[in-house]
Q: What sequence folds into this?
């Protein structure tokens, strides 16, 4: 299926770069999606180069969400107690601003974060985290093993789906792990994406959207067994995958249950994805229809959360600054920029409150509870939220 021509998903340009509605050097690519008939991995077919996406100015800071900061604090405690022995070692791939590793460092555990984007890495260092500034592949894994020794926990949150060569990730992790070590990664789960029609989870950074079936198949080729799973509520429905060197640990019953459930639901069959394509078109027509209607009635519609995923939604639905007056975001690096492709100005939450829009399209719908609590006054004075997941609705 195709979600059309799309720009790089993170906001990078200011309004003065726009000339005749166009930003000259704004990179675009075709967002086409396919499922591999051999391993069932759901993936995008083309992607801007990782060096363009994850450069020094990469503007996503995990800690901007209080809920996510708490989530990673809990994850660090839980995984450390379960898998890291006395004197053990922890490596995180894509350590961002150190949201997870600062808790590992705080417990005095030997650790290393691997992160290519230098500004976010700097924030992690300031919190006491050791960071190697690079992408992760099997060569880096060999160097890290030489430096640290075999690792007991390799952790990766919302990053394994970002690395186009998943084979080099799997082989690298297999070489890095201690015999008793475990690889834990969490990502948006394909089952939730299909069920909720969260088409916006598909964008340049998400090369893959993992099912259990695909994760089992892909990592088995790298010498890693899928041994456990934990469904997570974060990011609109995620899955925590646990893998271990082949033959070292017995898989928990939940692995077989999910494999069975996904086969029964037809995750290895084209029909499921045909239905998803159709559901995406319905979302587009309904959301576009609703916003057109509100605009025709003179209502001011804002967006909330200049998320990477909103880039897919806004460009796929053709929602531009003519429909959405501005987008509120609490990330200093995004305020004053325009959203990619559709060039809607990004403003601070203070400006959002001062301008009193009538409606707000919740682009960060995965942080709904946190945002609705924070913006209680918006609802209290009659403002309405627009949601598109799991279906288009005004609340
Ligand atoms: P959020 C990013 O995706 C990119 P995005 C990446 N590819 C990925 O996989 C996920 O993260 C994990 C703002 N906000 O988390 C902050 C407020 O303004 O949905 C962020 O810009 N007020 C690595 O960008 C955005 O919304 C708030 O109260 O789709 C949230 O982005 C909160 C909570 C957030 O991820």
A:
């Amino acid at each position: 299926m195709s979600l059309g021509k799309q720009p790089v998903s993170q906001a990078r340009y200011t309004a003065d770069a726009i000339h005749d509605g166009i930003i000259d050097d704004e990179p675009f690519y075709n967002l086409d999606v396919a499922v591999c008939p051999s391993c069932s991995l759901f993936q995008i077919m083309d992607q801007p180069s990782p060096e363009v996406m994850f450069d020094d100015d990469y503007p996503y800071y995990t800690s901007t969400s209080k809920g996510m900061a708490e989530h990673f604090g809990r994850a660090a405690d839980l995984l450390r107690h379960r898998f890291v022995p006395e004197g053990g070692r922890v490596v995180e791939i894509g350590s961002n601003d150190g949201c997870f590793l600062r808790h590992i460092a705080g417990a005095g555990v030997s650790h290393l974060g691997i992160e290519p984007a230098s500004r976010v890495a700097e924030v992690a260092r300031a919190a006491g985290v050791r960071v190697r500034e690079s992408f992760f592949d099997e060569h880096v894994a060999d160097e890290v093993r030489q430096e640290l020794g075999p690792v007991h926990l390799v952790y990766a949150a919302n990053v394994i789906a970002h690395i186009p060569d998943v084979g080099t990730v799997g082989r690298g992790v297999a070489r890095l792990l201690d015999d008793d070590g475990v690889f834990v990664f969490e990502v948006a789960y394909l089952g939730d994406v299909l069920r909720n029609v969260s088409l916006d989870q598909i964008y340049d950074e998400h090369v893959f959207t993992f099912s259990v079936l695909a994760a089992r198949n892909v990592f088995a080729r790298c010498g890693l067994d899928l041994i456990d799973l934990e469904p997570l509520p974060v990011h609109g429905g995620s899955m925590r995958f646990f893998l271990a060197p082949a033959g070292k640990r017995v898989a928990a019953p939940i692995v077989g249950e999910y494999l069975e459930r996904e086969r029964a639901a037809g995750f290895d069959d084209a029909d499921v994805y045909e239905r998803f394509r159709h559901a995406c078109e319905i979302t587009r027509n309904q959301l576009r229809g609703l916003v057109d209607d509100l605009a025709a009635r003179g209502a001011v519609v804002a967006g909330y959360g200049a998320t990477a995923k909103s880039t897919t939604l806004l460009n796929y639905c053709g929602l531009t600054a003519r429909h959405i007056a501005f987008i509120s975001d609490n990330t200093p690096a995004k305020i004053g920029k325009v959203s990619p492709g559709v060039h809607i100005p990004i403003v601070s939450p203070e400006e959002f409150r001062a301008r009193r829009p009538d409606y707000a399209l919740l682009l960060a719908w995965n942080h709904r509870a946190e945002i609705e609590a924070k913006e209680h006054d918006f609802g209290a004075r009659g403002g309405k939220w627009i949601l598109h997941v799991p279906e288009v609705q005004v609340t």
User: Anything to note?
Assistant: Residues 213 and 260 are 9 Å apart (CA to CA). The pocket of JHZ is lined by residues 60, 64-65, 158, 205, 235, 305-309, 328-331, 334, 364, 366-367, 370-371, 374 (CB under 6 Å).
